[in-house]
Amino acid sequence: MPPALLTSAAHGDAEVLRLLERRRDTGRRPGRHADGARIALVVGGGGMRGSYAAGMVHALSDLGLAAGVDEVWGSSAGAFVGTALVMGHGAEVSRVFERDMACREFIDPRRFGTRRPMVSLDHLFDRILVDSLPTDWSRLVDPPVPLNVVVTGAVDLRPRVLTALPDGATWRAAMRATAAIPLLAGPAVRVGSGEDAEDFIDGSVGDPLPVARALRDGATHVLALLTRTADDLTGIPPDARTPLWARSLDRLAPGLGRMAQDAARHGECLPLLADAAHPDRAGAHLLTLSPHSPAGVHGLSTDPGRVAAAARIGYETVLSATAPAAAA
Question: Which regions form coiled coils (predicted)?
Fold first, then answer.
């Protein structure tokens, strides 16, 4: 029997939220829980769609549930939102999408085909993460909650997980790598030094929602924050037109354009997300939260109003999911 499709904003096992609430109520600090469970937060990406996830992280922080997470996983925009939670910036990150990222300084389609990338990672790292959301990358060397960043090998297009990196400079390079796409957001980024150095590109090319990786790594509970509505995930037409930028990537490296389209890649995760009997679940508790309604935001959106609406929808999605969990 085929797995059931995702049919609501909250889909799966509410025990994940109940455990987060029990942990909050004990008052223990992050990483010092004594219940034998291991809760992984997996944050979806998708460029400006990350504003949905940012709103969700904002709500988790406001509700005091973020402190109950044992580890964070993410790629591309999901890695940045997850980093904000790890650093205690969960309340600020949703505002950054609207205020600082929904603008032509960060995303300008007119730059496509020029020598400058359409998405300016320089603006993100040298302006936004310095002035608007000051980020001390050295804090990730020994964080209260481990951060696992997915990147994609530039040569073989296979995903890798970067974690427990030795210094702030390496963490900064890893975060830039997980957002880099040739022609779209800049060239591959070298992470590491000497013989261990490797060139990486956007992590969502290889794995946009690393739920399976978190489960294989030993998570007993997974909370996955999606950046597409349930209808969007299940209604992607197989013959959808490939955008120009993706066709250009395919000319650069056959297959890269398709892999870089997060819609198709997220669709590949559906069987694991929707089927409680999926063999990769192995009895683990899995809850997915997807936006309760669309805000008209896509990966390259620069409309501040829509981006702000997406963050509000993400926030409301968590509130609506936690209310029945608390009453259960």
Answer: none
70: which 2 tokens?
């044992």
Answer for the pair 224, 9: CB distance below 8 angstroms, yes or no.
Answer: no
Indicate if 142 belongs to the active site: no
For helices 77-86 and 168-177, give the axis angle rounded to 10 degrees: 150
Single-letter code of the amino acid located at 284 = A
pLDDT band at 5 (very low <50, low <70, confident <90, very high): very low
Q: Kind of pairing, strands 189-191 and 159-162?
A: unpaired
* Residue range 104-115, pLDDT digits in tens: 999 998 988 788
Q: What is the pTM of this model?
A: 0.90
Report helix, strand or coil for 148.
strand
**For position 27, what pLDDT does the model report?**
84
Contacts of 288 (CB under 8 A, 6+ apart): 6, 10, 11, 12, 224, 225, 226, 273
Name every residue whose Cβ is closer than 8 Å to that of residue 128 and which is 6 or more positions away in sequence. Answer: 96, 100, 101, 106
Q: How confident is the model at residue 286 (pLDDT cuts 50, 70, 90)?
A: very high
pLDDT band of 28, cuts 50, 70, 90: confident
Given a contact cutoff of 8 angstroms between Cβ atoms, the answer to whether 126 and 139 are in contact is: no
CA–CA distance, 302 with 287 (Å, rounded to integer)? 30
Catalytic-labelled residue, pool 51, 61, 75, 76 = 76
Domain annotation for the chain: domains and CATH numbers: 10-322 (3.40.1090.10)
Catalytic pick from 13, 108, 202, 262?
A: 202
Confirm whether 217 is a catalytic residue: no
